[in-house]
Amino acid sequence: MKIQFNRNIFKIYCALFIIGTSVLACSGNKEEQTEKATPTNENEVTLTDIQIKNAGISTGNIEVKEVNSVLKLNGKIDVPPRNIISITVPLGGYVKAYNLLPGSKVTRGQVLATVEDQQYIQMQQDYLMNKAKLGFAAKEKERQQMLNAGKASSDKSLQLAESEYSSIKIALSAMGEKLKLIGIDPNKLTEQNITRQISVRSPINGYVTKVNSNIGSFVSPSDVLFELVNPSNIHLSLVVFEKDLSKIFIGQKGIAYSNNDPSKKYNTKIELINTSLGEDRSVEVHSHFINADKTLIPGMYMNAEIILNDASAKTLPENSIVSFEGKPYVFIEKAKNTYVMTPVEIGESDNGFIPVYTDLGNQKIVIKGAYSILMQLKNIVEEE
Prior knowledge:
It comes from Pedobacter flavus. By secondary structure, the chain is of the alpha+beta class.
């Protein structure tokens, strides 16, 4: 009997254990289901009084202020077409020598290259021979004039002498201009200084931007040996799209800076607005540098901020705006110690204030400690 009694007790204990375990499991499932059914707002956070005090959180309202808004543009440094010079050889020839590389500085009158060709010898020879003929023709004309005055020669002979003189004079003048074209002064040309080479000289002060030939190559009159640029009148060529064109006008001021040195600012002023839209619905706007220096090189890409007219706008302090995943947000006070992260559309900062284009009404906005709330909210989201 004693053994049977113990077995019954054991069976009772086992039954109670199974029932208890089932009840606890069901209770756990209900609690889990309850937790999962409770909705959570990942953009809402509630802080304690101590957290708010430590973070220095305070709220305020949107304020209407006068702000200078800016239009951000991109462009590159350019020069007027008249400041870009293509160097050619008017009559062609073989490149004998040059010592230039892109970026080399040149001065007006500097020899850029030496070119030679036998046609230069022929041109000088023809000029000197016609010059000698002109002297003879001049004396013959004078002789015929004297003979005609004394009735010793006919009018026809005089006319032929005068015609010959005029023809040689015209040919000599034309040959002289050709010599000037290749850089030879006909007034200084004699039989002792005939040369087969000519010097190609720079017509401006500037820099070499392109070198298109090599020593020994033949260049025709249409070939460009070098391209020079005069950087004395550089400007910033900006791209403005159609939607922003109404904001731009002549005389408008702005600042420009490069990505390499954003801290160095250059003052600019718009001088010309193209009236023709491109295929991408943009126009070219020329902005003049007020304080240009030698570090500005044609072709350099730059950023620009064009200052738009002063306007009244709803603003918040810069510290009110937080960035999360590349988008701007503010925290609105929903209830005591409870804040909701709300996306907003903003403008450019001016004197510590940022225009806010999203209608937030008269709600209380966190103006101090917004970043601390963002960190707390992110921690909560990560824990969940």
